[in-house]
Amino acid sequence: MPIRTLVWGENVHEQKNKVVADNYPEGMHNQIARLLAKDSNISVKTTTLQAPEHGCTEEALAETDVLVWWGHAAHGEVKDEIVERVAKHVWQGMGLIVLHSGHFSKIFKRLMGSPCALSWREAGERERLWVVNPGHPIAKGLPAYFELEMEEMYGEPFSVPEPLETVFVSWFQGGEVFRSGLTYRRGTGNIFYFRPGHETYPTYHDETVGQVLRNAVTWAHNPNRFASITDAPNVPVDKAIEKIEERGPRLHQHGEAGFR
Amino acid sequence: MPIRTLVWGENVHEQKNKVVADNYPEGMHNQIARLLAKDSNISVKTTTLQAPEHGCTEEALAETDVLVWWGHAAHGEVKDEIVERVAKHVWQGMGLIVLHSGHFSKIFKRLMGSPCALSWREAGERERLWVVNPGHPIAKGLPAYFELEMEEMYGEPFSVPEPLETVFVSWFQGGEVFRSGLTYRRGTGNIFYFRPGHETYPTYHDETVGQVLRNAVTWAHNPNRFASITDAPNVPVDKAIEKIEERGPRLHQHGEAGFR
Amino acid sequence: MPIRTLVWGENVHEQKNKVVADNYPEGMHNQIARLLAKDSNISVKTTTLQAPEHGCTEEALAETDVLVWWGHAAHGEVKDEIVERVAKHVWQGMGLIVLHSGHFSKIFKRLMGSPCALSWREAGERERLWVVNPGHPIAKGLPAYFELEMEEMYGEPFSVPEPLETVFVSWFQGGEVFRSGLTYRRGTGNIFYFRPGHETYPTYHDETVGQVLRNAVTWAHNPNRFASITDAPNVPVDKAIEKIEERGPRLHQHGEAGFR
Amino acid sequence: MPIRTLVWGENVHEQKNKVVADNYPEGMHNQIARLLAKDSNISVKTTTLQAPEHGCTEEALAETDVLVWWGHAAHGEVKDEIVERVAKHVWQGMGLIVLHSGHFSKIFKRLMGSPCALSWREAGERERLWVVNPGHPIAKGLPAYFELEMEEMYGEPFSVPEPLETVFVSWFQGGEVFRSGLTYRRGTGNIFYFRPGHETYPTYHDETVGQVLRNAVTWAHNPNRFASITDAPNVPVDKAIEKIEERGPRLHQHGEAGFR
């Protein structure tokens, strides 16, 4: 069964900015979806900020194996309740690919627990992404490096937690570097942050970027869901695996839930 | 200069529950403070949930190198605004030691970005903590293992992110195991989670527990603060380290702040 | 195409010790192979210490996607030259699953760069393996824990490097714990250490152990080989991606190889 | 008590190459020692390849808290027996700082278990080291980045294990990037790899490089030694912490050592 992927696009600059609209006449989300659909093991849907519940209903997320998130101008408009819902699905096993300016999305900051800040410059400069971890599944089939002739610069320090693994590091023409491909797990969900994708440049028309995204979706896919990952079950004394006798005082009545 | 440590105690069960009050007649926070004060390189203050702003004013946190957090029954009463303030101070370099039931505190969940759930049993059973990382500073001077004759059981899976390093793993009489000492960094702040400390048992009267706490405070201490860790500065094109020419279209006016 | 797996068995105690021979009349390697072959995506061969070049010829390894290694009494008889060859194949992308007493095999110590020591007791005691990382591919389909009624005890500290991820932690009846499932990457090869498997007990007749092994082979499989991972190529100045002028003195003549 | 540091210099190019000799008239090891000695908490000795046992006698290492290693042309002349001795001391808690071309030293490859390869170019180009982990002790007091106007280029992929933490990432004028500051632990010994230091350039006359080295020595210092880290003790059944009965067959006689 193909990996059920949902591409979430903010869809704001495409409507307001002629450069972005010319670049992505059907919206960034639809162009990202096109890149993913080149892999027959990936089935793709798209949705946007403007859809009811931002397109992230319980039903939609329950049918999503991997969510791909692009946002920038309207991070603040994403409702907190929806962010919590997406986080819960990630914890339960849904994969999440966060793109570019999504470093400041509510969902990424929620899952990282850190500022996720960086320095930046919008000058259409050259970015060169080096594969530092060639054996990682997300680097499958890639050359030693690939270039994006015009990109926004993001500079270190990128205030995210130390990742499970670093896959890409970027060189920028103006003198900066950036850890451009980072993996995490939160609960049972796999998370990949991928740096490129400024909306005024043709990044999502680049074939190597497409391959990274397809690899990332394949890597992030967890075939199982773990609905119980947020539970904190009490194990009754008489159900202990090894027989024990209850001793000493206790706070809780038998069968009572713990404090949260 | 000694490490300025602030012990935060919820101070609820000490007031309501005779067993806890007998165990910790001056409050758990004051007993934890006593353990820390045995190290002359640590200076200790205490505060509680009931203090104005839960004792976590900007002034108090600015003068704190390491915050030690014990809470249980009243996680929900800690104001979100204070949680955000504490998180900001951690990101800027304040150390944080989270104890026992603090796994479900708002501040720990905020910084982990994961459910932080586990299974539990309150039966006064034996816990044995094994040092799995004897070279880690938090294990300094400890024996191969130490025992707490009566403790609450916490069982895996503990839904936290993969740590920087695992320092302790617990064996429980009833058959479970638990990763009992885990290190993290968020922003520039060091975080240590330490499992033992159920309020109905005399855990914070144990000398080895005291040594772990003193080691943890010493390890978590970062002598610098990084107020800029949450900034996302724009680097103007003409200030690029390597000279570049601006190319292509842009979204932002010069000097404009980025989107958040 | 199925994952080409080679099970390497030391095949010493099966020949000398009646208990082991009765337990594994066709040799441990063949019983491990039988567990793997239940997955139609895995094709299995076996070999032993006694085969020419220990069955690890260049040709055999070139046709192996994942090597599974069980050894104990005869670690010292494995030729250093073969160990180096296996290490090279791992670096180039061959997966490696190291079982039980293989913690002291030359190949595991070679790839870890650490003592790989532990404490042990042979008493036929109960081991209970807890899944601490339920979202990891190696834990796919497993229950919260599984038990082996009779196993050898291995105790911490296990002097291996901090792993990429910890998948299992064991509880032992006699009071110890052990990190029983650990992942690593060396070069482009994935490595998994899995603790159970003492030869006098029926561990490789256990169906859950079989599932772990099949999951591990699937996880460790890297479809690509990276023959260049051990190269240290000189990049000539006139081939620099960004044009630079050579400056200052130099040690090396153009085109010369570096020092090793 | 100050941190007892031993700087090991290969001392080959200083004797053969006029540029290097002019750069470091007293040898690179003595110039590195001078940088370290600016910290009054560090006491420094030096030794070289040419000393008996390469200056790494049991006595010398027993009195060394942190060993700093610079080698290049003569990696192959370091005796395997001395490499094993140094590795043992690292496992037991001696810190190790490996510099520049030391990525291919026997001791670094021994401890990493991986190829430790990279691409390189000797063109006197500009290197800019970015601090990606500003809260790490090795980055203490450093600016956001620092530059070395003339350095040898090292390019990714650097085939080392995923580190505990990445502290520096380098930008090179010719278009490459490199993870230039990486931390590891092997056994109980802390290891830091630091990239700069080509012998034909004045790198060890740079004050920021000196600060990094002093920070690294301070970080790597483990005040304890763990002589038992390589032991694999048998725990007799009657000494089990929790009382157990021996069951089933066994391979080993009571009190017998395990296989290695």
TrEMBL record, chains A, B, C, D:
TM region(s), chain numbering: none
Protein name from the UniProt record: PalA
Domain ThuA-like: 6-220
Organism: Devosia geojensis
InterPro entries: Class_I_gatase-like (IPR029062), ThuA-like (IPR029010), Trehalose_catabolism_ThuA_prok (IPR009381)
Domain of life of the native organism: Bacteria
